[in-house]
Amino acid sequence: MSTAELTSTPGEEFLEIIADLEGEGLLPPVHAKLDPISDDPRPVEEREPAEEDTEEIEEIDWP
């Protein structure tokens, strides 16, 4: 096969396959930052911010 016959590189073909899977909902968007601890499938940027823990912690003076 000559290089004139190539219409795309293997990397481009891979990106096309990934884009197809994302479009079908089988993969999250590649650019999405996922939180492995959360059950929320939305990217981190789209979630509501978590409530911060503002509870005061009592300090103990140890002898």
Shape: elongated
Number of helices: 1
Number of strands: 0
What's the assembly state of these chains?
single chain
Quote the beta fraction: under 5%
Main sheet makeup: none
Structural class, by secondary structure, is mainly alpha
Which key terms come to mind for this protein?
single chain; mainly alpha; 63 residues
Short account of what is shown:
This protein is mostly helical and 63 residues long. Helices cover 22% and strands 0% of the residues. The chain has one helix and no strands.
Q: Can you walk through the features of this model?
A:
With 63 residues, this protein is mainly alpha-helical. Helix content is 22%, strand content 0%. It is built from 1 helix and no strands. The longest helix is centred in the first third of the chain and has 14 residues, at 10-23. It is elongated and about 75 Å long. The model has no long low-confidence stretch (mean pLDDT 70).
Element layout with pairings:
Elements: H1 10-23
